[in-house]
Design brief:
Strand content: under 5%
Largest sheet: none
Shape: rod-shaped
Radius of gyration: 41 Å
Structural class: mainly alpha
Number of domains: 2
Number of strands: 0
Helix content: over 70%
């Protein structure tokens, strides 16, 4: 085996080992992304495309040369001289070497493309996982905010109910005072009007808070029913 084909064979063995390591199941895509984020890879990244296409072109040229050799020695041997000893064995030895070189260069090109694609997919999977984690954290924060608003609205509603009860009791006391103190009728009536105005204001405020609560609840259900968010939560 010549020097160039020996180098191609070692390159093929290195590609096999690299692809096997990349396909190890217990090494996650995040770990590979951290590994590819090292300074040496960042330094080599501007030259990666040139190196990839250069190696692919070299392997392609060797593959075409091996294919030419296979075609050359696969044709009938019109120049074979019966007087030359071992000529038939020599031609078949050349054919075997050409086929061997063809397989080595072909598998080298194939594994080179596969390895590049696997590295790209690992990076994409890691980026997708990071984005999914960020979206999940954002959704959790939004859910906590909505729950906090619901609790605040519930406390406000309870406060409104207590105040309404207090106002009802106050009105009853005022009516008793009106019956007992007819001399203070005008003063009591104005107090009742003020109390009723407060009740109306609090009712309007309670209605506004209820509408705001319903709006926030609808937004919460819409966010939970989005397809992208449901898929991320299932994951």
């Amino acid at each position: 085996m010549t020097l160039q084909w020996t180098a191609v064979a070692f390159f093929l063995y290195a590609e096999i080992v690299a692809n096997v390591i990349l396909c190890i199941p217990f090494i996650s895509a995040k770990r590979w992304r951290r590994f590819f984020s090292w300074g040496i890879w960042n330094w080599l990244s501007p030259y990666w495309n040139k190196c990839f296409f250069t190696m692919a072109m070299v392997l392609l040229v060797l593959f075409l040369d091996a294919a030419r050799e296979v075609q050359k020695y696969s044709r009938p041997e019109p120049l074979m001289d019966a007087r030359v000893p071992n000529a038939y064995d020599h031609v078949h030895m050349k054919l075997f070497r050409a086929q061997r070189n063809l397989y080595i260069s072909g598998f080298s090109i194939f594994l080179w493309l596969i390895m590049s694609r696997v590295v790209t997919l690992l990076n994409q999977v890691a980026v997708s996982a990071e984005n999914g984690a960020a979206l999940q954290a954002q959704m959790d924060n939004m859910t906590n905010v909505v729950k906090q608003h619901e609790e605040d609205n519930e406390r406000l509603r309870q406060t409104m109910l207590d105040e309404e009860k207090t106002v009802v009791v106050r009105n009853q006391l005022l009516m008793l005072k009106i019956q007992k103190l007819e001399s203070q009728l005008k003063t009591s009536e104005s107090a009742v009007h003020r109390s009723q105005a407060e009740v109306d204001a609090m009712r309007r405020q309670a209605k506004g808070l209820a509408q705001e609560y319903d709006r926030l609840l609808c937004e919460h259900h819409q966010l939970q029913n989005q397809p992208g968010v449901s898929d991320k939560k299932d994951q």
